[in-house]
Specification:
Elements (H helix, E strand, L loop, with lengths): L2 H9 L4 H4 L8 H12 L3 E8 L2 E11 L3 H4 L2 E9 L8 H16 L3 E4 L6 H9 L17
Parallel strand pairs: 3-4
Antiparallel strand pairs: 1-2, 2-3
């Protein structure tokens, strides 16, 4: 029931406007992705509600690995806060929650990726203790 509100937050973003689809009914790809997340015990979709309104969301993935002595990692993606709630401290609370879940799962590292043009986001992540310790790369398989 929250999926439309999550998609709306994805669209209400300077980058999301160009890559997300806010049409109704929802694009079937969002529904399929949600169903896959719901079936996978190593995926969690956090939805934050205040006074009956969805105001925040993030996806938390738990990733097992062989490297670094079989270390588990937490991956945080798709972080969105409703534009009217940005700067309210909600992001800090969401990250505190997500990092605590990573510790509970036995993760030894929490990682995330962000678009390099999001300078305010970079400062926010650095304020939480994240460090730009690695250079990431992506290969777009859509041909766009």
């Amino acid at each position: 029931a929250d999926l439309e509100a999550i998609v709306d937050m994805l669209v209400d973003d300077m980058i999301g406007k160009g890559r997300e689809d806010g049409s109704r009914p929802l694009n079937a790809r969002y529904v399929a992705a949600f169903d896959a997340i719901a079936r996978d015990e190593n995926q969690f979709l956090l939805v934050v509600e205040e006074a009956g309104e969805i105001v925040g969301s993030l996806q938390l993935s738990f990733i097992p690995g062989i490297a670094r002595l079989g270390m588990w990692r937490g991956q945080i993606e798709g972080v969105r806060i409703k534009s009217t709630k940005r700067g309210s401290g909600l992001g800090h609370k969401m990250f505190d929650w997500a990092i605590a879940r990573c510790r509970d799962k036995g993760c030894e590292l929490v990682q995330l990726a962000m678009d390099k043009t999001r300078l305010d986001t970079l400062r926010f992540y650095e304020s939480l203790g994240f460090k730009a310790s690695h250079e990431g790369m992506k290969l777009d398989l859509t041909g766009k």
